[in-house]
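Entry 12.
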Amino acid sequence: MSDALDVFDRRESEVRGYVRAFPTVFDRAAGSTLVGEDGREYLDFFAGAGVLNYGHNNPLFTRALIEYLERGGIIHGLDMATSAKKAFIEAFERLVLEPRGLDYKLQFTGPTGANAVEAALKVARQATGRSNVIAFTNAFHGLSVGALAATGNSHYREAAGITLDDVTRLPYDGYLGADVDTLDLLEKMLDDPGSGVDLPAAVIVEAVQGEGGINVASVPWLQRLRAVTAERGILLILDEIQAGVGRTGAFFAFEEAGIVPDLVTVSKSISGSGLPMSLVLLRPEVDVWKPGAHTGTFRGNNLAFVSARAALENYWADTAFVDGVATKSALLAEELSAIAAEHPELGFVVRGRGLMYGLACDADRGLAGRISKLAFERGLIIETSGAHDEVLKFLPALTIADDELRRGLAIVRESLAAAIAE
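Predicted 3D structure (tokens):
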């Protein structure tokens, strides 16, 4: 690493990760461009791991935040009522819940997605009086203990240092091949008193798995999962932390299946600006919390409420934003399919939805990492995912310009060619 990074090497914990993949000191950003201290520009296909769906320093949000700060608006409020929270709830009700016919209570948890997952699991267990939870292969739900128990990746699980209990792992859609409906196994195990699987409080699932390798659950699979859980009084939790807020096209990734989950976890891009914010959506009958039973010092981030409201009002009042994402999605899918077709010897698999896509290569599981490294050298930030980091993961801002998207894809092509040449 360069001398500019010496202080991080000297003083920051060994747990640091992304700085190793993208070794430079970033100084400022706008839209889909990051700028280093040295003035070098980088095109961003990473978007803060899905936090910056509306791009860096979106001026619509910056303006709203500055105005709020200049008038002395409340910044920290625990779970007290504030004008910023009130305005966000009203906007969320008007622009997200009511148009989709959804009736959810909103629980504001601690600032990370893992906090939302922890709360969802806790209230599901309280509401049902049961402890077991069904989770799926390659799931990622967070790294605090309850959320980590539902996470599949051994790299993260081994860091816990304790036994991770009360979760039964079953195969996600497609895990056993395209011709196998993995819900046959779930239904059999739930209905067989000899299976050893206790009736769960909840099933937690991502409609599109992000960290697990951009695995997309089919519409029939999600619809059947909803039916299986509803018939047995099992709560269905949809983890929309990375795949939601427009990332896969619609506001929620589960919308395509036409289902209504019992609980939904939301974080990452919900604040719009990158400020920490998480919430759980609960059907009213699931909201069995006693006052103060699940708290958190930073569950009232009023600056996040301000930018979150601005995001909803500026991007979700009509269909123009979603239509734009669909156009960019088609461009991305077409280009990735062309790259795969140009290299049949590598056996690339393209999968994803919206602007959440993966280019997977099982034939050479180190290839995605090499492409990411070479792309960074060429001015593109793009990460990998999957159990073996075998998937090149495309998460550009939903507001990215078409020419920026094409330029980034051109860098991917160059980097792939260089990786093959090496």
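Annotation: The two ends are 22 Å apart (CA to CA). The first helix runs from residue 6 to 11.
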